[in-house]
Specification:
Number of domains: 4
Radius of gyration: 35 Å
Helix content: 55-70%
Structural class: alpha/beta
Bound molecules: zinc ion
CATH superfamily of the largest domain: P-loop containing nucleotide triphosphate hydrolases
CATH topology of the largest domain: Rossmann fold
Strand content: 5-15%
CATH class of the largest domain: Alpha Beta
CATH architecture of the largest domain: 3-Layer(aba) Sandwich
Number of strands: 10
Largest sheet: 5 strands, parallel
C-alpha cells in the first residue's frame, strides 16, 4: 500500500526534525534534566511540525530506555507511538465530534495511571477549538496534575487558548519552515524515493506549501502520481496551477507602460488557458508582496520564498516602481481578491481590478509632479548659495523672495510664506527693504523674518519692513499695468512654471486672491 510521503517521512527523532531548533534544544534540555512540564502549548502555522514534535516528545519520555533524547525506535512504545496506537499516547482532534466526547471523558481518564508506559501523553490537536466546558475540565487537571500526565496543546491560534490555561503551560511557537529548508527536505526525499526532480520543480513544490512541509509533501505526492518519476518545473507548475514569474511579470510590464490594452489581453489569455481568476489574483498578491519586500529589503532577503535567481529578478522589477506604487498595487490586488470571492463574473472583476491598477499608476504622475514642484521651492536656497556674487539686481531680489518663501515653507509658517509672495523686496546697501501690505503685518513681523533668516543661515542680514495700504510696490499705478505685472509675476513664479512644464495647458487668467 502506498504511504503518503508526509507520513512516511515524518520525523521520528529530534535529530530528524527540520528547523525549529529553539523548540528542540529546550525540550531536549528538559528531558535530560527531568524537568518536563505538565502542559505545553505548541503554536504555529499548519505543517510546521507541531504534532510531530509532540509525538517525538512522547517517544523520548516513554521509550523503555528513557526518558532519553534519543529514543531507541524499536521498543513497543517507540513503534506504537510512531504508528499512532500506543496505549498511553492519546491523540485528540478537538475540532471533531469524537474529540469533543473524548475531552468530556478527559477528567476521568487522567486519574488512571498509564497502562504500560511512564507517562500518559495527551496530544490535543486544534486545541483552540476546545469547548469552554472542556477547557474547565482541563484547567482543573492542570491545577493539580497527576505526576504521570502531560498535555500538549497544538494550535494554529494560540491567542484563543484561555489565559488561565496558557499560564500553566510552557509555550513554544513554531516558525514556518524556510524556503531553502523545504527545498532541501524535498530534495532529500526525492533522492530516497528515486525521483528525479529538477531545481525548478523543487522550488515550485516548496512554494506550493507556503511554509508548510506537509503541504509541500502532498504536492509532491500529487506530482509523482501525475508525472511519474521525472519531475520537470513547467509540468509541475501547470499541475499545481502555479503561475510562473514570467506570467506575473506581464502585469508589471503593462503597469510600467500604463498599457490598459495589454492588461485586457492578459486577462483574455488567462481565461483561454483555463486559469481560475481567484487563484491568479492570489498569486498576483503574493507577487506584489514579494516585489515590495524585495524593494525594501533587497534581493538577499530571506523573507521571500524563492530561489536566489528569482529574488534577483524580483528586485530588478521592483526597482522600476516606488514603494508607494507597490503598496498601492498590493492593496488593489487584495481588494480585487475580496471582490472575486463574491463575484459571479470573475473575468469582469479581474479586468476592472487590473485597469484600476493602471489608473492608479497614472495618478502617481501628478503626485510626483507636485512633489517635484515642492522640491524646486525647497531646494532653491541650495542652488543659489548666498556667498555667490550678486548677478542682476532683479534676479537677486527674486532670489531673496524665493529663499524666504522656501524658509517659511520649511518652517511650516504658511501665512508668512504667502505674505512674502505678495510683498516686494529690494536689496539695498544697508540690507533688505521689505514692502508689504498692512494686512500682512502679523505674518511678517520682525520675529518671523528673523526666524526665516536664521533658518537660511543668514541671521546677519539686516532688514527693514515697511507696511503700506497700497499693497505692494507700484500697484496703485493703474489697473491695466497692475494686471500685466500680476500676470507676469504669476507666470514667472517657479511653481507655476514647473506646473505648466509638467502638465502643459495654458493660463487663461490671473486673479489676485485678495481682490
Ligand atoms: Zn524505545
Amino acid at each position: 500500500m502506498y504511504q503518503v510521503l508526509a507520513r512516511k517521512y515524518r520525523p521520528q527523532t529530534f535529530a530528524e526534525l527540520v528547523s525549529q531548533e529553539h523548540v528542540r534544544t529546550t525540550l531536549e534540555n528538559a528531558i535530560r534534566q527531568n524537568r518536563t512540564a505538565h502542559g505545553y502549548i505548541f503554536s504555529g502555522q499548519r505543517g510546521t511540525g507541531k504534532t510531530s514534535v509532540a509525538r517525538i516528545l512522547a517517544r523520548c519520555l516513554n521509550c523503555v530506555e528513557g526518558p532519553t533524547v534519543t529514543p531507541c525506535g524499536v521498543c513497543s512504545s517507540c513503534t506504537e507511538t510512531a504508528a499512532g496506537n500506543a496505549p498511553d499516547v492519546i491523540e485528540i482532534d478537538a475540532a471533531s465530534n469524537r474529540g469533543i466526547n473524548e475531552m468530556r471523558e478527559l477528567r476521568e481518564n487522567v486519574r488512571y495511571r498509564p497502562a504500560r508506559d511512564r507517562y500518559k501523553v495527551f496530544i490535543i490537536d486544534e486545541a483552540h477549538q476546545i469547548t469552554s466546558e472542556a477547557f474547565n475540565a482541563l484547567l482543573k487537571t492542570l491545577e493539580e496534575p497527576p505526576e504521570w500526565v502531560i498535555f500538549v496543546l497544538c494550535t494554529t491560534e494560540a491567542h484563543k487558548i484561555p489565559p488561565t490555561i496558557a499560564s500553566r503551560c510552557q509555550h513554544f511557537s513554531f516558525r514556518s519552515v524556510e524556503f531553502e529548508e523545504i527545498v532541501a527536505r524535498l530534495k532529500y526525499i526525492c533522492e530516497q524515493e528515486g525521483i528525479q526532480a529538477d531545481a525548478e520543480a523543487l522550488a515550485v513544490l516548496a512554494q506550493a506549501g507556503e511554509g508548510s512541509i506537509r503541504d509541500s509533501l502532498s504536492a509532491l505526492d500529487q506530482a509523482i502520481a501525475c508525472c511519474g518519476t521525472e519531475l520537470r518545473g513547467p509540468e509541475v507548475r501547470a499541475l499545481l496551477g502555479i503561475l510562473s514569474l514570467d506570467a506575473l511579470e506581464q502585469v508589471t510590464v503593462a503597469l510600467a507602460a500604463s498599457d490598459s490594452n495589454r492588461m485586457l489581453d492578459l486577462v483574455a489569455e488567462l481565461e483561454r488557458n483555463g486559469h481560475n481568476m481567484q487563484h491568479f489574483c492570489r498569486e498576483l498578491a503574493g507577487y506584489f508582496r514579494n516585489l515590495l519586500v524585495a524593494k525594501i529589503a533587497g534581493p538577499e532577503t530571506r523573507l521571500i520564498a524563492a530561489s536566489p535567481g528569482e529574488r534577483r529578478r524580483l528586485a530588478e522589477i521592483a526597482a522600476g516602481f516606488s514603494e508607494e506604487d507597490l503598496t498601492r498595487y498590493l492593496h488593489l490586488t487584495l481588494e480585487l481578491y475580496g471582490d472575486l470571492q463574491r463575484s459571479t463574473q470573475p473575468r469582469l472583476h479581474t479586468e476592472l481590478g487590473l485597469l484600476r491598477m493602471v489608473q492608479a499608476g497614472r495618478l502617481v504622475a501628478i503626485e510626483e509632479a507636485l512633489a517635484a514642484i515642492g522640491n524646486t521651492a525647497a531646494h532653491k536656497p541650495q542652488t543659489h548659495p548666498s556667498a555667490a556674487p550678486p548677478a542682476a539686481a532683479k534676479a537677486e531680489t527674486g532670489d531673496w523672495k524665493a529663499r524666504l518663501y522656501g524658509a517659511f515653507k520649511e518652517l511650516g509658517m504658511m501665512f508668512s510664506a504667502d505674505a512674502i509672495e505678495r510683498c516686494t523686496i529690494e536689496e539695498k546697501a544697508g540690507g533688505l527693504a521689505i514692502i508689504a501690505h498692512t494686512d500682512d503685518r502679523l505674518a511678517l513681523t520682525e520675529a518671523c523674518i528673523k526666524r526665516a533668516l536664521q533658518h537660511l543661515d543668514a541671521a546677519g542680514v539686516k532688514f527693514q519692513v515697511k507696511f503700506t495700504e497700497a499693497a505692494t510696490g507700484g500697484k496703485s499705478d493703474g489697473t491695466a499695468q497692475v494686471q500685466d505685472e500680476l500676470t507676469e509675476r504669476a507666470l514667472s513664479h517657479p511653481e507655476v512654471r514647473k506646473f505648466r512644464e509638467i502638465l502643459g495647458g495654458e493660463v487663461r487668467s490671473v486673479r489676485d486672491l485678495k481682490e
